[in-house]
Amino acid sequence: MFYREAGDFKTTYRDDSQTFPIRFDRWRYYAVVAVAFGVVPFLINDYWANAVLVPFLIYAIAAIGLNILTGYCGQVSLGTGGFMAVGAYACYKLMTAFPEVSILIHVLLAGGITAGVGVLFGLPSLRIKGFYLAVATLAAQFFLVWLFNKVPWFYNYSASGQISAPERTFLGHAVTGANTTASSKYLFCLVILFALAWLARNLTRGTVGRKWMAIRDMDIAAEIIGVNPLTTKLTAFAVSSFYIGVAGALFFSVYLGAVEVGEAFGIQKSFLILFMVIIGGLGSIFGSFAGAAFLVLLPVLLKNILVGQFGWATDLAAHIELMIVGALIVIFLIAEPHGLAQLWRLAKEKLRLWPFPH
Amino acid sequence: MPDQLLYAMEAGLNGLMAGVMYSLVALGFVLIFKASGIFNYAQGVLALFAALTLVGFQEGQLPFAHLINTVFGTDLHHFGWRLPAIVAIALAAGVMVLLAIVIERYVLKHLVNQPPIILFMATIGMAYFLEGLGDIMWGADIKTLDVGLPQGINETVESVTGSLLGYGFFIDNLDIVASVVAALLVLTLTLFSQYSKQGRALRAVADDHQAALSVGISLRFIWVLVWSIAGFVALVAGIMWGSKSGVQFSLSLIALKALPVLMLGGFTSIPGAIVGGLIIGMGEKLFEFTVSSSWFGDIFGFTLGATENWFAYVLALLFLVFRPQGLFGERIIERV
Fold this sequence. Notes:
Chain A is mostly helical. Chain A has helices at residues 13-16, 23-43, 46-72, 80-97, 103-122, 130-150, 182-204, 207-217, 219-224, 229-256, 261-264, 267-280, 285-309, 314-335, 339-353, and strands spanning 163-164, 169-170, 173-174, 258-259. Helices cover 70% and strands 0% of the residues of chain B. The interface between A and B is large, with 48 and 51 residues.
């Protein structure tokens, strides 16, 4: 009815190739952004920030990062946790070494350092493909976590082996440390996510993104039509690791505050983010958001129901949660292998014809 | 001979034994990958689940005791009887077959013709599910598994090496048993796949799904069969690892250790799984021995520890850069 391209005349190429070609979509997008920036910060409290919103924003960044590598460029990676750890430790070293520099710069630099590490571990992707590559990225995961555990320089020789974020402010508001408010944490992550998601969306529909997708669809064919596999795969690794590094830096500094590397950035984290990408939808920025929201909300919901409502023991609830998450993943893959993003696409197709489908 | 060399030999020998244990898990992977092209991440959790079930049967535990007690407010734990090891093993094997049927019917059947990454993800989902299920059924505490396998230092090896070299090697009896079992397992599997009717069908499916279908081989039966065999191999691995280090969650992580073994040996080769396991096991023990030894510290000014966490992966990674299909894998031919 209102979700139509009919009557919405495009008079320039610019109009024609915009991200949201349908007017209703565009306004919906503006409305979501306005609510996220203008309404939520005033309503947010500590519980919502810590349990739902901040982890959602950070995981969404990581999921976009992995989606670029796995969804757009087709290189399966199980090293996400390790790369997040690189971001976290780079951020920590920068924060403690240059306390006067803005935290935003530190976070972005941490992403840059992770991009470098990512390229290094991406080099074998030129020779190794498919599952062999997925297993090879496990080398990154285990080696990096071991490195941060064993070399005291990385955690500034602290006795506990943990790293903890000192207080840093951004535009006069504390975003790390003990004296943060829910809204400042939320807004800080939101600004970064918004910028990075915008960048990712535009990267993936430009030349770079098309090259990635060509490599994903058939690397040999792509090479024949003139896509350079070396630069294409390595840019995918670099951009993806940048996002994941930023997510790791935020995860450590803003969300957790203190981190023990094996616990926070273990192999489980790699799988969690891979699930987000798969459930959300491979090769879709919206899917990264949807997957992150789904897997952040699900445990909170289950915990509230099982422990809060029924009063079950937490370990029993945790096991049931594990079963439900596992079962849901399988069910999802059977019902809709292209993820939530595909459901969204189908819904939009239906909506265009509604209420007169003929 | 200098002492250091003797210690290194002992470490290497123990590494070989550890490698056999990795191979046991890797075998299950290879079987499933060959027959269905599925990269089965759940193999480690299958081993954990099998071992948990075995202990549960042996101790006469009531399944889902915790859940039942929570829901109904009862206080039940055990049936009050203990089963002999051999009966418990048979029952556990039965459960694994049942599991294979359930997996085929409710998961794999619906995922035919999906890209490999989707199937891989589905096995990760199954791994989560089985882990939760195992914990709910039998409880998450660490259990000791004792099916009567010999354990402790092997006196014969110690005395023989002691008299020959002047230093007695420490080799665990359990490791020796594991090696024998692994050898028997490989022999049985090879005989089965070479000489039995089902084995031939299995190889046909591994070779070409469609061609196998067209000569009347039931794909679904073959999948149940191969998952049952993988479940049985998982049970054997679970018994060995469970006897060695207790039945606990970390058992499922050995699956991850089996991955570099597979990469080295090639995903499609049973001898590759064995050789890869031996190389990885010996390599990581020797590397750990070298970098934590005092003369390494003298030369480089520092020593490293706990390198076993990552050495296998890095070794496999470096190896693959030079030989992308692994040691014994089929040559990867790509067409546009």
